[in-house]
## 1
Amino acid sequence: MECFSQTLRRILFMSTDTQEPKPLSANEVLKAASHHLRGSIAEELADTTTGAIDEETGQLTKFHGLYLQDDRDLRLALKKAGQEKAFSFMLRVRLPGGKATPEQWLVLNKLAADVASPSLRLTTRQTFQFHGVLKGNVKKLIQGMHQVLLDSIAACGDVNRNVMAPPNPERSVAAQQVYDAAVSWSEFALPKTRAYHEIYLDEELVAGGEPEREPMYGDTYLPRKFKTGFVLPPSNDVDVFSQDLGYIAIIEDGQLIGYNVTVGGGLGMSHGNAETFPRLADVLGFITPDQVNKVGEAILTTQRDFGDRTNRKHARLKYTIQDRGIAWFKGEVETRSGIVFGPARDFHFTTIQDPFGWHECTDGTWFYGLHILSGRIVDKEGWAMKTALREIAEIHTGDFRLTPSQNITISGVTAVQKPVIEAILAKHGLDKENDRSGMRLNALSCVALPTCGLALAESERALPDLLEKFETVLEEHGLAHDAISIRITGCPNGCARPYLGEIGLVGKAPNKYALYVGAAYNGTRLNRLMSPSTTMDGAVEMLRPVIKRYSLERESGESFGDFCNRSVLPADATFHSIGTPLAA
Ligand code: SRM
Ligand code: SF4
């Protein structure tokens, strides 16, 4: 087996490909020394003297979908009392394309109650998160998930993360092929280390034999996280241009004939650091369905070998492409894969919104799209979402599809079950969830406080109030049912893809947000800065006259984002600039 100093020399050499040698980021050293993501995770999870694990070990557990967090609402009081922070873990499930069986739903629902917060949280990448998992419960949770063939391998970390794909509740053949391709790529790009099985599932270490290898990743994995999304026009529900790697399905005469491949999307940035920025992906060209994994591997390994391992804020694929150019990148991928891209085929996106309510499918089944604000599945008085979904899972014979907008569709419903599901939703006060304003149905928020360690401002907890304020203004101007996308995050990392919202609020400090407007509703243009810092009320007041003007002056079919882009933002408002406040 390669020793640590050899590994370090090799990765140091890799990082010096074009420039003066720079020190590797601390995470590179950590990964190299981790014995394929084992480190001292097992020992630290077994240590009952603290609810935490070391910071460095916490970097490694991310590769297993596990994050150390603490309840930030309690921080101050615990500090004053001289006590340890209220530590617990967040666990993210790997669920390509967001498909879960009723049996899986029931097990996750019970695990949330028994060993977590007890809410279930649907994410913007079509999976479940558990919060509030105490150290002593981590293995119980992962072992419980394993019983229904679910895992959290590579749900986070410097690897290919949960692969997104159209939920396909309508059960179309082409969408099923796209889903199968997403699952295949997810499996193909999984790390090969048995670390997860040994640490959490008590798999025996095999003595002797071949040394463990990571054929695609190498010993230090990728420089940074890597995200893939498959999409089926005309819906751009997965926001394909925000993905490191995207596959846009091309359909001719009802048949899937291949994909346009996109690369270099990514949204994270840091306030005040102009070297970090959101970027929409470039279209590389067309490939046939059988070339998906080969091209994906060439893209992933190009990033593995050329991504910046010295600066984690500059380590995503978007910066590799920005620095070296798309022509160079395409050439490298073609050489590695032996596949020459064809000219990109035409495609057209019209929407990002999930289909809500009942829809009949060609096979005689039905699906029901259910709006769930911020994807939070919990029971509240008069709004028992968690109980309702459990009761549905108990009788449902189809499946559940998690959507990229934090909603679900109950799919494959028989005509007999349809009224039963309707009755369950009505019993729990959920039958009117889809009769909400167009803005609410198109709202996303990240988790933020109290669990996210990076949050600078509220997001999920602030969204209901923000929506109510906007809804009052929209109603005044007859726009209650217009689809206007609004996305809010507690920091600039971009977890609810706020830079693709027609309205985007990005947290800077408690109740201070940068306000962005003017993205294309279909996810093909970023928004731009309207105000560098305002409060939530300030954002509503700033947009009040814009909403009025939109109701009076919009062109036929013009979306709110297009209107702001055309007639509200100054022509020179850029994404980064400390924007000129709106003079409307
Ligand atoms: Fe995210 C970090 C939550 C989608 C960009 N994200 C985090 C962490 C793990 C905070 C941390 O590192 O300590 C958050 C955990 C909060 C909590 O308490 O649960 C977190 N991200 C989320 C989720 C749950 C938001 C949600 O409310 O649904 C989403 C989980 C997706 C999943 O299932 O895998 C989530 N994160 C995204 C997206 C959107 C997407 O991928 O479609 C982005 C922007 C796209 C992108 O990656 O460019 C995103 N998250 C980030 C970043 C910034 C990355 C960057 O390149 O700068 C961070 C911070 C980091 O990696 O250092 C981050
Ligand atoms: Fe946390 Fe920031 Fe992501 Fe929100 S956007 S979940 S605050 S990292």
## 2
Amino acid sequence: MAGKLLIKSGRVVDPANDLDKKCDVLIIDGKIAEVGDLGPVVEETVEEVIDARGKLVTPGLIDIHVHFREPGDEEEETIASGSMAAVAAGFTSVVCMPNTNPVIENETDVEYVHRKGRQARKTHVYVMGAITKRLEGVELAEMGLMAEAGAVGFTDDGRGVQDPAVMRRALKYAAMFDVVVAQHCQDDGFADDGVMNSGYYSTILGLPGIDGLAEEAMLWRDIQLLKRIQLERARYHVQHISTAAAVELIRTAKKESLPITCEVAPHHLLLTDEFCAEYDTNYKVNPPLRGQRDIEALKQAISEGVVDALATDHAPHLQSEKELEFLAAPFGIASLECALGLYVKALIEPGILDWPGLIRLMAEKPARIIGVDKGTLSKGKQADVTIIDAEAEYKIDVNKFRSKSRNCPYHDWTVKGKVEKTIVGGEIRFQAPESVRSSG
Ligand code: DOR
Ligand code: ZN
């Protein structure tokens, strides 16, 4: 974008540059031109000034795990509706999962998602391609062509890759293109068609459970594969980790310097399987909600730096489908639009992270996982910026979501941390409406 935009006197938090101080950010022609105390002379030369006093100014947030349902299930979400939700939530980049209908499994599919993202003109839309054709776990998808088309990772998310030989091939092949392989760790044998966490609540509810072992067994297996592959550019990312034992496996693998990263989703920090006790399908998610011990282990891992990214796993579904009985309803929680507030509640309010720590896990490190040159406000970078009112408190109202879906268990929760403005490539793509902006 042509022109000059000055963001004045905000608290600029840019963990990649160890920066946390009150200053200005100057954007020229869509790029970060200067960060510092720029003074009135600069102000006179710019087209637009944003007064950011009392606000946080951070690198644009990046969500590396969303489901935008296009192609195939546009009534649940489209790339356009999801993109609108994303910028309203402060995300300047998102990564779409490939479990659409048809599956994103070749270069044309990847280009299709990119084109729809560009047309939406809201957030940067990236995509991971499938590891295997039709997510069947048997034959590798066109990973090379998808990488050339710009896929930022590969995953069969929604399912784990069951066959170790297929997974080993995928890790080796992806390494040739320096693209990350992301795994939904779930061994189907242990998961056993379960619909919630296996434990006390699944027993009293009479529902089949998914044992934590399902996650841990596949994760353990993949770590053994990683140890044996030893390819310089092999990279493995664990999606939505949910159990204390999974945390322990990742902690150990990192100590051994294996090329492993992981993400956590908000529901695994805020909700336990006890919430399923009323058979409310808004709490049906995969991996399932676990126990308090698991939550504590995840939080501990976050405080120690074992977790690399906070993602949402935004998984929109139709109300008519979520109204089915617990056994039949689809897995998934739509949380993109309230993610920041949820993370503030789970991590900042209890003192597990400070703001620089949170932004590191919501911008800097996610960018590194998917290998894009983003996640910081360094001079010369594309100007993706999020302006946040850290103190503003508000009630989550699913009826106000830009997302097409409402399957969100946080309706009526009060959270802190509101997105004021989202700037993508130097353009203001979202501004909070005046009326709600001042609400305290
Ligand atoms: O809860 C989930 N929903 N987990 C997944 O792995 C898939 C996702 C979806 O696509 O709805
Ligand atoms: Zn997912």
